[in-house]
Design goal:
alpha/beta; 7 helices; 3-stranded parallel β-sheet
Length: 278
Amino acid sequence: INRLLQVRLRARGYEVASATDGAAGLAEIERFKPDLLVCDVSMPVMGGLEVLERVRAEGRDLAVVMATAFGSETIAIEALRRGADDYLRKPLEPVEFKAVLDRTVGRLRLARENQRLQRQLDEKRLQLEAELARAADVQARLLPAAPPVVPGWDVAGACLPAREVGGDFFDWQVDDGGHFLSLTLGDVMGKGMAAALLMATVRAALRAAPADPSPARRLAGVERALADDLESSAAFVTLFHARIDLATGEAAVADAGHGLALVRRRDGAVGPLRVPKG
């Protein structure tokens, strides 16, 4: 049977090595590093099931077909349970031999291709995670690092994105020689990298916009500058922008669809900030 298997396998284009007992077979596996092992259940020195267990315990990347005597289905089932890929019944029938061989080799190739694709996916995932971590760091650095020092005022802000990066942001600027404080809250539609990119664009446009006593006029200028970008990306941004006179405490505000501003009164009461429309 051993010689017959060698002849049939070589006739199908395979390179073949053989051994006549289980221990010699393990040594040959180490030397030859086969893709397919055809192993008899009953062998001297070391039986086929023990060889199978050793091969699987070592995690070798090869398919295993166990050969059993006709009528030994119980042993074949046990071999499959221990990790065999298929089994052959002796005496060997050419048609069954070809079917088992083709089926086993086909599954082996498919498994290796799946492993290769999985490795590629894992590499891409790690790259993406690294890029997202870097993007999150860059976005965090775009937010104010520390509140402005404004005598008589306490200023604080925080942003916690739902994912690694997002489209929410806040900003503040002291302008006109330190007499006015501009505050901005923004929310770009959506989450993730696309929203983060738009957020950075909106922030840059706001920073570049000249100071204006009217927050509404300033936001209108930013809107005109971003109109084409927002239209091409099918996105929108809501903004709340305020300009506070630090000497008087008077604030001029503009709410561009944000609608979530709250104000805390001197008596401690908190309620929505009513912004006149128009």
